């Protein structure tokens, strides 16, 4: 009897893990998911103990990123890197046994990936060191935001990122709020996210990113939806279902 193909999913955002698991269940129903991890250290431990045939690894995770997990793993596996940023989708991903998926993951792209993975089974030992070093050398470092040039009417203002408590989409602009006032920029939230410290800023809704340290309280409304209050602001922000997992411990 042929043993089933096994896989590890390592992705720090629960909605993305759930979506990928569901897509794989439809496209590769005989694939057995042996574990799902939300950080790189757990992923490496599971890889060592479970020895999966396939590893889906988010490039950026707490503890260890996907590149380091693949580098340190000792058992063979087909590797698929997952990334939200186009700059990671370089030619080195197409070399050898390495594949990649861009977020949000498209079904047509995953179909291609599954076909390639199936054609390569069983997995063989791959020395990722040189390939990953080459890949890492091509990755463009993301320049984190320090100062924001925003407008208040006809006046330009320089706002330090340490003073920002909220980025919020409003029509064609993004509101940049501090504890005392607001200004506006044209940069959309999707372009801001890669340039913000993920430990300092959380997306709580498709139209809002908040500074974690500015959160005053989080509580449900009468309909069970989570609301976030920030220091210096009287009106709460609604937390969408896709991001409420961030507040489970609260």
UniProtKB/TrEMBL annotation:
<dbReference type="InterPro" id="IPR001789">
    <property type="entry name" value="Sig_transdc_resp-reg_receiver"/>
</dbReference>
<feature type="modified residue" description="4-aspartylphosphate">
    <location>
        <position position="58"/>
    </location>
</feature>
<dbReference type="InterPro" id="IPR011006">
    <property type="entry name" value="CheY-like_superfamily"/>
</dbReference>
<feature type="domain" description="HTH LytTR-type">
    <location>
        <begin position="148"/>
        <end position="250"/>
    </location>
</feature>
<feature type="domain" description="Response regulatory">
    <location>
        <begin position="6"/>
        <end position="118"/>
    </location>
</feature>
<dbReference type="Pfam" id="PF04397">
    <property type="entry name" value="LytTR"/>
</dbReference>
<keyword id="KW-0902">Two-component regulatory system</keyword>
<dbReference type="InterPro" id="IPR007492">
    <property type="entry name" value="LytTR_DNA-bd_dom"/>
</dbReference>
<keyword id="KW-0238">DNA-binding</keyword>
<protein>
    <submittedName>
        <fullName>Response regulator transcription factor</fullName>
    </submittedName>
</protein>
<keyword id="KW-0597">Phosphoprotein</keyword>
<dbReference type="InterPro" id="IPR039420">
    <property type="entry name" value="WalR-like"/>
</dbReference>
<dbReference type="Pfam" id="PF00072">
    <property type="entry name" value="Response_reg"/>
</dbReference>
């Amino acid at each position: 009897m042929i043993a089933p193909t096994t896989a590890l999913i390592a992705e720090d955002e629960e909605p993305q893990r759930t979506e990928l698991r569901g897509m794989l269940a439809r496209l590769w129903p005989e694939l057995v998911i042996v574990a799902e991890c939300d950080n790189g250290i757990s992923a490496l431990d599971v890889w060592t103990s479970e020895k999966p045939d396939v590893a889906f690894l988010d490039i950026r995770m707490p503890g260890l990123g996907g590149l380091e997990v693949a580098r340190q793993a000792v058992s063979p596996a087909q590797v698929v890197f997952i990334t939200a940023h186009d700059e990671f989708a370089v030619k080195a991903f197409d070399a050898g046994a390495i594949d990649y998926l861009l977020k949000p993951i498209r079904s047509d792209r995953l179909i291609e990936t599954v076909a390639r993975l199936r054609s390569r089974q069983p997995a063989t030992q791959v020395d990722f060191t040189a390939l990953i070093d080459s890949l890492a050398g091509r990755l463009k470092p993301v320049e984190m935001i320090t100062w924001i040039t925003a407008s208040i009417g006809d006046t330009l203002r320089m706002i330090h990122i340490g003073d920002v408590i909220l980025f919020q989409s409003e029509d064609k602009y993004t509101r940049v709020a501090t504890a005392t006032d607001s200004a506006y920029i044209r940069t959309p939230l999707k372009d801001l996210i890669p340039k913000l410290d993920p430990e300092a800023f959380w997306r709580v809704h498709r139209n809002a990113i908040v500074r974690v340290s500015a959160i005053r309280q989080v509580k449900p409304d009468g309909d069970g939806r989570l609301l976030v209050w920030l220091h210096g602001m009287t009106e709460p922000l609604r937390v969408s279902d896709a991001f409420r997992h961030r507040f489970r411990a609260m």
